[in-house]
């Protein structure tokens, strides 16, 4: 299968057959999203926990596997969504590409920049489409905020402040999240990637340098807190704090521009501030909006154009996360590696 023929045969189909690798909570969101797309059917589900795969597959009348290679070899698929533990992303993408399957890879793309590059190359060499599940550009409130910033009505973005507070412990998440080899990191890799993605989508710029620190709570093998400053191209500064120490849940982004500001909050929605006036533009982001974002991502992945979130973009997020870890280890300013 050549790259051109493979992509054309994919987006011209009206009965795309999709397989899921991983049957956790994120896979459940893909199931909800696909339900609104009559041209797409989830026909196979794989998880090493066979009972989890069976539970997700049963309402779909989908085939069940506990080995992704067996699922790929069985055929009757056009594409796969991979939501496995992070360090397995690249080898699973290689297996999918070898089987001629297009790949939507859940974020983070991989745990290292080198693995991101391997994934990009093997998919390109095999002629299959690769998209990465960095979701922020599909979230309705983020999309509207990005449109406002691109319009120039607030002037050039100068400063972004990103605050996240979540529960991050073995009682609230799967055990593999706290295995450094499988997860590749902790709260920065898993939650901080959203913050990096959001800042890059809002500004259209990339993180180029990082000065950061991370901390671990006793008894946990991955970082549970992270903070620092990132420099984006375009001379934009991002200050971030990502914590799990028991503060109330928070997901808030403020963008200060030359002539005004935006505040984007998971609970408060989207606000614009200009000339002493505050305007509420959009309500909070709820479950329905998240499912809509996943659905739009699937439409983008299966469309006729190059996916919006390419392998190169996914690599840029992983590179910024890796720069956080390198900066924290060396206590120095780190440039991102693209």
UniProtKB/TrEMBL annotation:
MF terms from GO for this chain are: nucleotide binding; oxidoreductase activity
User: GFO/IDH/MocA-like oxidoreductase domain spans which residues?
Assistant: 142-263
Q: Provide this UniProt record's keywords sorted from A to Z.
A: Oxidoreductase
Q: Which residues form a coiled coil?
A: none
Identify the InterPro entries for this entry.
Gfo/Idh/MocA-like_OxRdtase_N, Gfo/Idh/MocA_oxidrdct_glycsds, GFO_IDH_MocA-like_dom, NAD(P)-bd_dom_sf
Q: Where is the Gfo/Idh/MocA-like oxidoreductase N-terminal domain?
A: 16-133
The answer to whether the entry has keyword Thylakoid is no
Q: Which Pfam families match?
A: GFO_IDH_MocA, GFO_IDH_MocA_C3
Q: What is this protein called?
A: Gfo/Idh/MocA family oxidoreductase
Organism the protein comes from? Kribbella antibiotica
Q: What is the lineage of its organism?
A: Bacteria, Bacillati, Actinomycetota, Actinomycetes, Propionibacteriales
């Amino acid at each position: 299968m050549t790259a051109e023929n493979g992509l054309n045969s994919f987006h011209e189909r009206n009965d795309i057959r999709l397989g899921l690798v991983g049957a956790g909570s994120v896979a459940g969101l893909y199931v909800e999203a696909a339900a609104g797309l009559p041209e797409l059917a989830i026909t196979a589900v794989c998880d090493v926990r066979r009972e989890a795969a069976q539970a997700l597959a049963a309402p779909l009348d989908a085939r069940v596997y506990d080995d992704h290679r067996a699922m790929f070899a069985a055929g009757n698929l056009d594409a796969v969504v991979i939501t496995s533990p992070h360090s397995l992303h690249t080898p699973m993408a290689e297996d999918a590409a070898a089987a001629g399957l297009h790949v939507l890879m859940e974020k983070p793309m991989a745990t290292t920049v080198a693995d991101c590059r391997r994934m990009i190359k093997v998919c390109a060499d095999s002629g299959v489409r690769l998209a990465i599940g960095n979701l922020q550009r599909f979230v309705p409130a983020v999309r509207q905020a990005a449109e406002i910033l691109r319009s120039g009505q607030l002037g050039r973005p100068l400063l972004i402040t990103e605050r996240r507070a979540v529960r991050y412990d073995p009682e609230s998440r799967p055990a593999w999240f706290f295995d450094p080899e499988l997860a590749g990191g902790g709260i920065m890799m898993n939650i901080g990637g959203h913050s990096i993605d959001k800042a890059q989508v809002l500004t259209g710029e990339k993180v180029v340098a990082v000065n950061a620190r991370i901390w671990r709570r006793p008894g946990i093998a991955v970082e549970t807190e992270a903070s620092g400053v990132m420099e984006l191209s375009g001379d934009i500064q991002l200050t971030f704090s990502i914590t799990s120490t028991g503060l109330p849940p928070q997901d808030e982004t403020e963008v200060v521009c030359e002539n005004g500001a935006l505040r984007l909050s998971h609970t408060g929605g989207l606000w614009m501030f200009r000339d002493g006036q505050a305007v509420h533009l959009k309500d909070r982001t709820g479950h329905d909006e998240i499912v809509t974002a996943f659905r739009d991502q699937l439409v983008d992945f299966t469309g006729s154009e190059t996916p919006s979130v390419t392998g190169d973009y996914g690599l840029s997020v992983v590179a910024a996360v890796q720069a956080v870890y390198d900066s924290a280890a060396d206590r120095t300013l780190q440039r991102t590696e693209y």
